[in-house]
Amino acid sequence: MKAAPFSYVRPTSPEGVLAELSLAEGEAKIIAGGQSLMPVLAMRLGRPPTLVDISRVPAWQSIDVGTHEVRIGAAVRQRAVERHRDLRVPLLSRALPWIGHREIRSRGTVCGSLAHADPASELPAVMVTLGARLGITGPGGDRELPADEFFRGAMTTALEPGEVLRHVTVPRARRGQGFGFAEMARRHGDFALVGITTMVQTEGDRVVRALLGAFGVADRPRLLDVTETVAEPLRAAEEDGASAAVAEALADAARDLVTTGGDKHASAGYRRRLVRVLGGRELVAAFRDSRKGESR
Amino acid sequence: MNPVSTMARLEDARLVTGKGAFLDDLDPLPGTLVAAVVRSPHAHAYITSVDLTRAREHPGVAAVIGPEEVAEALSPFPLSLRAPMDYYPTGTDKVRYVGEPVAVVVATDRYTAEDAAELVDIGYDLEPVVVDALEATAPDAPLLHEGAGTNVASDRTFVFGEVDDAFAAAEHIVEGDYYFPRYSSTPMECYSVVATWIDDPERPEVEIWSNFHGPFSMIPVLCGALGVTTSQLRLHVPADNGGSFGIKSGIYPYMALMALASRHAQRPVRWSEDRSEHLLSSSAGSDRHMKVRAAVDADGIIEAIDIDFVENVGAYLRPPEPATLYRCFGNMTGAYRIDTVRLRSRAVVTNKCPTGLNRGFGGQQLYFALERIMDAAARTMDMDRLDFRKRNLIHADAFPYATPTGGIYDSGDYQRAVELLEERSDYRALLARQEEARSRGELVGTGVALIVEPSGTNIGYVGLATPAENRPPGRGKSGSTEHVHLSVDPQGIVGITLGTVPQGQGHATVARQVVAKELDLPEGQVVPTVEMDTATTAWTITSGSYSSRFSPLLTSALVDASREIAHRIKKAAAVILGTTEDVLELHQGTVRVIGDPDKSVLFKHAAGLIHWDPGRLPEGEEATLEVNVAFTPPQAKAPSRTDQVNSSLCYGFVADLVSVRIDPETLDITIDDVVSIHDPGTILNPTLFEGQVHGAMVQALGGAMYEEMAYSDAGQPVSTFMDYLIPTTAESMFPLTMAHLETPSPMTRLGAKGAGEGASMSFPVAFANAVEDALHHRGVRIDSLPLHPNVLHELLHLND
């Protein structure tokens, strides 16, 4: 478990990063927190000739909180976002503690997790659910992609050779929005068997929009607009507090969302069950959250 | 006597401040090179070509050895039974499991060694694979060892009593067909070896540092492969050994391999196993198919039991295997009065990694079958599962109790222990509460397991794998000897040399406590040193830290040695006090006249006389305070001609109750409560005892819910901790009530038995019984582990 030889560079500016990437002619790997990449190197499952460490690029180290959006730079650790007191991105705040363990989050970066694009990881699903935008820089200049266009498959993104994810821009919660997050894993800190992200927007007692996101179920995070399906059962759930009817209504959605073949930890059938059950619970939770008056 | 200490472990301050010195921290031979092992990616294949040229030419490489070098220089390891299934430290003709070593690269550092390892070119011709032991017994199964003509290494049937008559007369016959899966130990520190071959043509010597911990019966096995006598091998085991739970007994093939690598490199060689290697190919507990039938009479008394074990030992019968199959031979009938037994035991080779010691060692397998069949029998009788067990328990007045298979249960009060279990769990109220919860649609259940925990192995039991008529007379094997060395220095400090090769159990803490108590000295006046150097430390075939030996055996040796020291100190004190030793007693650091406490002398002054002024001793008195004592329990004998064996010296008792709750929607399993009652004889140190129970239980939790060394049909194992899930603190936070009683063993000096494996044996089946109880009304029957939501989803045939 020792990495094959590689060279290591640590530029201090975005231009320097791009220059190093261009020198390596598309063979270099970006390293930020290294929480996924280092095991890959140690097990010699990957052997990039060059590692470009972006953790010392000051321009990418900040969390910028605006009125409607939060921008998280490429070198920002997950733990820094988790500990931030003024984000008002409740879905992100609820998802972060589920990523690995605290030690891992102290090294791992938000953007690194997005660029790694593990289909069972939390942050890509959060970004897709929230409609976050991913800022990319490369030899052809800067560009921006909505999250649902960024993730292209398991460990596959829209990043072209020579490009770097420089930040992610996440919308802050608005009045009338509520969120839900749940995850089932074999153990605390493991990758999800199934993870659920929900957003419900209400006006008065009317459900304007209901989104059901799922991860660990396909080759990328999935998101369905289930407004039509759950609007009625959600209102009924407000009466009796039970999520069973909502879960029931999600049977088709679960079949649609789960495309993985399953493994020894969770079959496709068990994953569909979890999507229904956890989806139902978290849509109810989001619905109630949306009706709390002032959003967080 | 019951020496109780609440002091923190003597070992901890060093360990928690990072001052531990584990093998990879040590550099006993400066200039040592570093090895990497090349392993087979295939489960079963002929080796058709070996090209080491490119690896040997790689800069920084000192030597590369492969199948040819191994076959030329080494002999196969002598097996525990005669079987034409040659076992070398690497594949020679064939590879038989994924991860089997095929070559060793020795280089300046591990990075270079791994770079060069990629240049080793081995050609393979793939063979069909068999990973299941039952399938491997089929006549057309792929053969692992062609010379044997079969994959069944050992097939023995033992009959005690009129089994067929008992089944013919039975009111009920209850049957079960179970499979106990394979899981492992995964200590924090993996295998580590530093080896040097001193190539004197007259008398070659091999010197090894390794975190091996016995059984030292493997030393002659190792020497047999190396072609040297045991005195030509010098083994050092560091005082700090980062956990084992049995698995490091399987390191010795690497000791042979690295010795040979050193011979080729002409330099000492270090190899430290990495985590991937450890998981892939170090060792594991065995997996076992178990068919059980019980003959039960109309009153719910078990008249006979018929057991068929098919043990998967992996690709080779690596000694001491098939020991897992026989370790519990004497306690095959568990805690119950069952006089009539038939047992068929087969040890079968398959294309999995060879098995070995793993905490519980045969107990979790046996009791899974026995305690599942007890549940099934109770349900057949429509009886409460605990009441049914109580009806069959061995009575407290029956000890010492001889089992049909040869065990002699030394002591116990199972009725009292079960009463404690009922009290502490509030058993009847718990069942009533669960019944009520069930009527509300909740999924809740309770499981119990009553088990006998053997400790202080009699290594003679392995002989049973060979039919009595083939066991050479006069060459029997038996015993359970344990050595200790005590000395007193001129200042009266008592030194203990502990050759018990601990792996974190706290041997030094307990040894100090026992000796201080025996000699009535402050603990600070007793200084234990953990040390194993086979050239200077007393050892024997049964030495080592395995099968819960320390508490029953080593502490007995400590008591005997302390008494000898006391005897000599009193002789010296008698000279100073002008009296005779028989009127003296040791009291709080002094030696004083019984009944006349004013007449006393300090312990250290008495010791000082022997060191400084031995001329004053009576003529003929040896002036030494160095004592070597061996404790050899006479009850550990070789198997009888009728195939009975007292396979352990001591037999403790554990009664576990587990209650679980299952989320009807997600099927998530929550452990609501565990009550664990132990009778380990005299408890020497309550803190360490508790730690052992916690550790054994969490390791068992792994086997019960999380860990499974699964193999694909092609023989590919799970190879990372992404899939091999070890419970962490987050998974281990269930409510636990512990209680104990102490029925001292008459076999050991302090009445102590082992206590470190019981929960490993009892918890998996108690948990399985609880899960089945929660889902029994839904038609679920549990016949295997691990149990987690996905498994329940399948068992419930849910249409999602």
What this model shows, in words?
The complex is a heterodimer of chains A (296) and B (800). By secondary structure, chain A is an alpha+beta fold. Chain A has 3 domains: 7-53, Uridine Diphospho-n-acetylenolpyruvylglucosamine Reductase, domain 2, CATH 3.30.43.10; 58-171, Uridine Diphospho-n-acetylenolpyruvylglucosamine Reductase, domain 3 (2-Layer Sandwich); 177-290, CO dehydrogenase flavoprotein, C-terminal domain (Enolase-like, domain 1). Helix content of chain A is 35%, strand content 25%. Chain A has 12 helices and 14 strands. In chain A, a hairpin with a 2-residue loop joins strand 12 (194-203) and strand 13 (206-215). The longest helix of chain A is centred in the last third of the chain and has 23 residues, at 268-290. The radius of gyration of chain A is 20 Å and the shape is globular. Chain B starts with 11 loop residues before the first helix and ends in a 5-residue tail after the last helix. Chain B has 3 domains: 12-127 and 189-272, Alpha-Beta Complex (Aldehyde Oxidoreductase, domain 3), CATH 3.90.1170.50; 287-460 and 638-795, Aldehyde oxidase/xanthine dehydrogenase, molybdopterin binding domain (Aldehyde Oxidoreductase, domain 4, 2-Layer Sandwich); 482-631, Aldehyde Oxidoreductase, domain 4 (2-Layer Sandwich). In chain B, the strands form 7 sheets. Chain B has an 8-stranded mixed sheet. With 800 residues, chain B is α+β, with helices and mostly antiparallel strands. The A-B interface holds A 1-5, 43-44, 184, 186-191, 193, 247, 254, 264-267, 269-270, 272-274, 276-278 and B 110-111, 114-115, 118, 274-277, 665-668, 706, 708, 710, 720, 722-723, 725, 727-728, 730-731, 788-790, 793-794, 798-800.
